[in-house]
UniProtKB/TrEMBL annotation:
Transmembrane segments: none annotated. The keyword Mitochondrion does not apply. GO terms for biological process: acetate metabolic process; acetyl-CoA biosynthetic process. This is Acetate kinase. The lineage of its organism: Bacteria, Thermotogati, Synergistota, Synergistia, Synergistales. The keyword Cell cycle does not apply.
Amino acid sequence: MKILVLNCGSSSLKYQLIEMDGEKVMAKGLVERIGIEGSRIKHTKTGMDAVTREAPFPTHTAAIKYVLDILVDPEYGVLKDLDELYATGHRIVHGGEKFTKSVLVTPDVLKGIEEVIPLAPLHNPANLQGLKAVMEVLPGKPNVVVFDTAFHQTMPPKAYIYGIPYEHYEKNRVRRYGFHGTSHGYVARRAAEILGRDIKDLKIVTCHLGNGSSITAVKDGMSVGTSFGYGTAEGVLMGTRCGDIDPSVMIYLMEQLGTPQKVSDEVHKKGGLLGVSGISSDLRDVEEAAEKGCERARLAWDILVDGVKKYIAGFAAKMGGVDVVVFTAGIGENGITFRKAVCDNMEFMGVKIDAKKNDCRGKETIISAPDSKVTVMVVPTDEEMVIARDTLKCASEAK
């Protein structure tokens, strides 16, 4: 059975076509600048070089039609016709408290996604555009939505209620939601599989570290705490996002800058590694500058390392110990020096890595030393495969 996986942004569309018999990626691609001059598509058929074409994509519907056309193209396609598609899976950023798992799309589901738009005004509308476009182009084909927030809906109230008047939760659902849930769930389960252990017997800290970063405590296979909160600026320092910050700073910035949008730009777009280092939002650039003696770059690096250490140790305390620490996403999978810096001086809690094993990028590896009490792993994330699996399951159950 063939599943099309879509991840729609406000002006972009990522896609993968996966053959679920063997879970093989047949084709993948990216449409950029939808609705903007200079739009283009980069398409890769497995086993062939990527092909890039410039074409006008005024809407998501136009982009999806083009994707479907190229998937049945005699040269670059992988399908004889669109009847081969079993279903389409969609990434949806926010499901609020309403959606605790992946679901088949129905009119009620569409309404529910629209109801939580105020919680993710930049993301959910774009996700919905892609979903509705597929429903228009492929009427009658099953669609399944997979939510970034769903994995974290197992957190207990003590992990998601903020210390502000409770009425804000009751009336406006202000609480910690957490994101990157598809990634955290995948790497936690995959780590247990690699170790040959039942995930319900493990206490795992998963570190999804990239331009956006979050850390999650997984106990008994469930999220019991995560560093992202109501939005995606809380937690550790990120590419341009500030991480944990005193609310008094926000009040002060509001007084100084005058508008919520300007304050939002400071903490979401101008902060993080970029704001502290003054050099780049990319940790590789920051690391290089730090090695050349740039003090602000070194400071940004140290803040991020320190923050990750704090969350690992804090979540270990929360769970009453930790058996496994998993690094994933861009920095987590490729940051050899960064992983070492995080794990240095953590022998007190049983974390000890092997320098040779740690010298790896982008592959499943146990990097802890033989005498480490905590297993430290690198597990590349595969959110598209999670979406594909959930799509197959939900669509099959509905038939």
